[in-house]
Amino acid sequence: MSGLPGGVSVSNLRVYDWPAPDGVGLAGSGSPHLHVVSSEAYVVLRGSGSVHTLGPAGFAVHPLQPGAVVSFGPGVVHRAVNDGDLEVLVLMSNAGLPEAGDAVLTFPDSVLADPAAYRAAATLPGAGASDDEIAAAARRRRDLALEGYAQLGEAVDRVGAAAALKPLYDASTRIVRTLVPRWQDVWTRTVYAETETTAGALEGLIRGVGQHLVRGSVSASQASPMPRRYGMCGRLQTWPTPA
């Protein structure tokens, strides 16, 4: 939604209740992944579970109960774990970029090494596919990410978190590189433009001029009427974001 402050996007996430192959989560879990430029926050609305994070400083488990807020930045691998009816409000920086591919799943090294193979594994069926077909593909994608996540965990045990993550970071950079010109265009027209507006307002106020106040506006938006889409970690209800 372009009217949200600071270039933030919002979605409502119901974490997958598909049992995970590694047995983590009383109900199930989402797909471990990272974002390459955007920060994310979970605001827990109901249910219980946790978010597992892996960054250069190591692995951590953050319990999730209603009212909890957990945030993580680019490069932090995260996995939503559902112990029962877990539902969170997701806030993302850089509205428009997460929706345009700013996420890399922890697939096995052989898939991460080939951007074309990565995109084939990460892309869900398009128009014309049934909900059952899309759900099955999303679950296969989740399980493949967990396979690579297990490999990543073994590497952390051998060489430490920072060294284990470096190949994933290198692969992530290769995978998203061709998308970046579009991201720059979206970010410049939205987040950066808003930052420049704030800078101009502050400069005016320090001179005793509040001309920006006369341009105050209001925007409103409804959630997408379409069925919840299959995201990385669960079913998502979304709101419009910048093109």
Give the helices and strands, then pairings.
Elements: E1 9-15, E2 28-29, E3 33-34, E4 40-55, E5 58-64, E6 69-72, E7 77-92, E8 104-105, H1 109-112, H2 115-122, H3 131-159, H4 161-176, H5 180-206, E9 229-230, E10 234-238
Antiparallel strand pairs: 1-7, 1-10, 2-7, 3-8, 4-5, 4-6, 4-7, 9-10
Helix pairs in contact: 2-4, 3-4
Main pleated-sheet profile: 8 strands, antiparallel
Order of helices and strands: EEEEEEEEHHHHHEE
**Unreliable segments of 5+ consecutive residues:** none
The amount of beta strand, in percent, is 25-35%
**Average pLDDT across residues?**
95
Which labels suit this protein?
243 residues, alpha+beta, 8-stranded antiparallel beta sheet, 5 helices, 26% strand
Give me a quick take on this structure.
The chain has 243 residues and is of the alpha+beta class. The strands form two sheets. Strands 1, 2, 4, 5, 6, 7, 9 and 10 form an eight-stranded antiparallel beta sheet that branches. The chain has a two-stranded antiparallel ribbon with strand order 3-8.
Structure description:
- The chain contains 5 helices and 10 strands, in the order ββββββββαααααββ.
- With 243 residues, the chain is an alpha+beta fold.
- The strands form 2 sheets. Strands 1, 2, 4, 5, 6, 7, 9 and 10 form an 8-stranded antiparallel β-sheet that branches.
- Helix content is 35%, strand content 26%.
